[in-house]
Amino acid sequence: METTQVTESIQSKRAPFDLDLKTKPAGGWAGWRGPLAATGLAAILRLPYLGQPHAVIFDETYYVKDSLALLNFGHERKVIENADAALLASGGENIQSIFTDAASYIVHPPVGKWIIASGEAIFGATPFGWRIAIAILGILSVLLTARIARRLTNSNFIGTVAGLLLALDGLHIAMSRSALLDMSLSFFVLSAFGFLIMDRDSANSGGSKSWRWAMVTALGLACATKWSGIYFAAAFGILMLVWDYERRSKRLEGLKVWLTKDFLPALLMPFVIIAIYISSWVGWFRSSGGWNRNWAQENDVTSWIPDALVSLFHYHKDMLSFHTNLVTPHSYSANPWSWPLMIRPTSFYYETDPTCGADKCSQEVIPLGNPLIWWDGVIALAIIIYFAVARRHSAALPIAVAFAAGWVPWLFFPARTTFSFYSVAFIPYTVMALALVLYLANERVQSDKPIAWRWPTLTFVLVAAALTAFFYPILTGHSISYEMWQLRMWLPSWV
């Protein structure tokens, strides 16, 4: 039975980094129906009223216009005063009038903005248009999470639970409905994580290493969305090499074989990531008016490196200086130590127009994580880290590494202005950990019916769903009475 198989997988004494998961869950439709159901739920929670609120919310003010500039000019441009209001009033028509001829200084690479631009190109420069592509990535992330968790645990049920929990998470819902860069980063990193696990399984069975190059491609796109993708690239690359070494040791092939067949070829991977990153700036290269585009010529820099690359390198020095010195006070800034507990969520939008039928109304978009998922997720992650360190378990280890890559590096920048919604990069691994620990917490239920152990987990999911329904209005910008809004502010720091 699946229950016995997963229990033995978790509890058996294993050699460090054992990769041999001998039991496999039912395949075919049985392996897809749960993940697809979770994906359908994700779509139901993310797509309706996607153009609500009809506003440019929080950092959409940067990325919506930058994406339009990329679409129309190939590089970011400065905008006129009150450009947001003009854009909303235009209905997506004559949008070039909101831009000046001057280049705009930006601090994030282009891929995430090109994704936003794809929706604008198809559906117009409207709130729905600039959010739809991000919503699709958020929905697909649920499918990826469910299928990856299934592969990691050899359980269709655990994979489905992980997908359902991500579908129900409030932060993930709100971020899927906002045209920011972080959902794109999360999607590419999650894709890379899935490719990493597939590469592990393929290599363990004597297959090719093609999956690791798919992983590298996804990591290149992640880094070309936000620089924090570098943390995942380093973590996944190291874990891949550790698994390679463990596999060579089991086969008695030794250090020399690992160095020549695994380590040295892996040294090419950073260059592939860099090539993908540089290629993402194609619009800037093809233009003549991008920020710092002609810096090398204007400063008479002579080098064997092409002038455009010299100019781009100088531009990146300025970008690095911005990121490392970003300590501007912000009312919604959140210390990274507090992120897993969702202490200080970021309000993206808040209005008090009397649109709810009450005397005083509140309309808010706040990426607030589902409290049951996040607060129990902290406990689950602690347990998973124990299994990763003490047992070197083959499911717990990669989950712990991926979570750490998304969270731990930020702890070294306590003075930097950071926000809790950056957590969308690691919430998929939190729900994977939670789904696995929910199984462990219930697997000792004694019953003649194999499905009996699942009811506590299903109850947990149903309670999470009830909480999502309760918080849904403030995740999606529905207008409610001020009293109903206050009822949802459980902590003073949420206001």
Q: Can you offer a commentary on this structure?
A:
The chain has 495 residues and is mostly helical. The protein is built from 21 helices and five strands. The chain has one domain (2-281, 328-494). The chain has helices at 2-11, 33-46, 60-73, 83-90, 111-123, 127-153, 156-168, 170-176, 182-204, 210-223, 229-250, 254-266, 269-279, 282-286, 295-298, 307-324, 371-391, 396-407, 427-442, 454-476, 482-487, and strands spanning 77-79, 99-103, 349-351, 361-365, 479-481. The longest helix has 27 residues, at 127-153. The radius of gyration is 24 Å and the shape is globular.
Strand order of the largest sheet: 3-4-5
Question: What would you call the shape?
Answer: globular
Number of domains: 1
Radius of gyration: 24 Å
**Fraction of residues in helices?**
55-70%
Task: Name the quaternary structure.
Answer: single chain
- Provide the low-confidence segments as ranges: 1-22
| First-to-last CA distance | 48 Å
DSSP summary: helix tally: 21
Provide mean pLDDT, rounded. 91
The sequence of SSEs as H and E is HHHEHEHHHHHHHHHHHHEEHHHHEH
Question: Sheet with the most strands?
Answer: 3 strands, antiparallel
Q: How much of the residues is beta strand, in percent?
A: under 5%
* Helix-and-strand structural type: mainly alpha
Compute the number of strand runs: 5
